[in-house]
Description:
By secondary structure, the protein is an alpha/beta fold. Helix content is 52%, strand content 9%. The longest helix is centred in the middle third of the chain and has 18 residues, at 121-138. The model is unreliable at 70-81 and 261-267 (pLDDT under 50). This is Response regulator. It comes from Phenylobacterium deserti.
Amino acid sequence: MSLLARLAPHLPYVRRYARALTGDQTTGDHYVRVALEALAAGERVLEPNLTPRVALYHVFHAIWCSSGAQLEAPEDDDGLAADDTTRRLMRIAPRSRQAFLLTALEGFTPSEAAQILGTDFAEVERLIAEAQAEIDAELATDVLIIEDEPVIAADIEALVRELGHTVVDIAATRTEAVDAVTRKTPGLVLADIQLADGSSGIDAVKDILARYDVPVIFITAFPERLLTGERPEPTFLITKPFQPETVKAAIGQALFFHPRRTNKQAA
């Protein structure tokens, strides 16, 4: 199999990563092209002990580091970066930004990210934690928890408050969730599926999303009920019993990558 054939399935993803890293598609594509040219010319080789995708990202980073590239977002006519996400990314320290994007955006494990960055697992974990702390501090928001089990609700509330967010309400039913949103629009919703009165957290979220554009994280013991191809699509789905660090990471990612929140009724 040719080199191009081996790498072709991964090129759209490394381009996506390069764009997020640089804040600009043209700049990102330039560095991807340089990496491919170096591979074609034999100046760089894919590490045989790595998977093709990991090896491609590893070469990209080798090219990036040797070029002395500056991780700065280009400015538009108003002197602002292209969008909110880009501006937030550019404020994260470069090395932490790389570790965060590799794991949160590209879906690599910390071990794979360590291979790409030429470091170890512990260092990647530290870098991700640094990025997460910066994100949490910047994106503190109001959170609605939809959960009918008091102990689990208390655990989630503690995690949310630990990250610096404010819990505006804890709803145990669909009706309570909808009522809570009318009193205070949340910036994030954490929702169970099966609620106290037999109502559905899925329906509660549908009601909320019909009026407000907010990120949602489902935390449930019944993930199969969301894997139906119907809305609301579970971009963030955590299975009970959950690990606290998994919930914390999902909160940071949901807030970081969600577009600017708007009231649909006001639009």
